[in-house]
């Protein structure tokens, strides 16, 4: 019998959660659910006698994991795992799996939505309409014929490329490695070429030592002054202060930012919240009804396979 702690809400109904737990409970396994917290002492108290842990994107520090002597498996209900103390997990031989693939559609669709919002000045024209005014000076532009550059061309990046292609855009892509077998409409280029040629730059890359602060003042200066930046990857991939300055000075025309250096809620004095033509959303790209259900399906499948000795979606 295993004790499994669910460290935060998985974003599904109580009925769905109960149904997904039921097969495990029938085998004698026990689940304990906790509300999200960032208090390390509380996290240790909740997880210290657990065999397995399920969490989404809440931080799970290495110092907490080092005090969880029974823990054997961390089941991450998220694609990225940079918020988990992987060094400690490796030291303690704790297996780690993620839920890669659950939000491919959700993230890609939000990229399209935020791009359209910026292209058509939706926030401003709505305000104008509510104020009894017209569109003067706020005529937008179309995606068709524009060049979209996607940095990080995994499954989500590939899907984003498909959607932009459907709109009639030209699609550039850049990843750490060259991808074979990509669609014929994809042109794989270097990052600098992508930045210089693109009208819309979309970030889908993971956060690691090579990507932290990757989009900085120097890289932003390579972009067209009419270009947009869309970040649905990880906040620290972009140097936030550099982006705010670039927007203030017209280095680029606009940005859509869903991820930040910290999880929202943000400090309302944060410079990016006051930068011009910057659409901000509180880390919602992954969150739809469909994606939350698919995520739960993957997470509980991960748990079942680990219990059977056949770990899948392996991180460690």
From TrEMBL:
Enzyme Commission number(s) from the entry: 1.1.1.290
Taxonomic superkingdom: Bacteria
Domain annotation D-isomer specific 2-hydroxyacid dehydrogenase NAD-binding: ranges: 113-285
Residue stretches making up the D-isomer specific 2-hydroxyacid dehydrogenase catalytic domain: 21-311
GO MF terms, alphabetically ordered: 4-phosphoerythronate dehydrogenase activity; NAD binding
Regions crossing the membrane: none
Keywords: NAD, Oxidoreductase
Assigned protein family: Belongs to the D-isomer specific 2-hydroxyacid dehydrogenase family.
Protein name in UniProt: 4-phosphoerythronate dehydrogenase
Annotated organism of origin: Shuttleworthella satelles DSM 14600
Gene name as annotated: pdxB
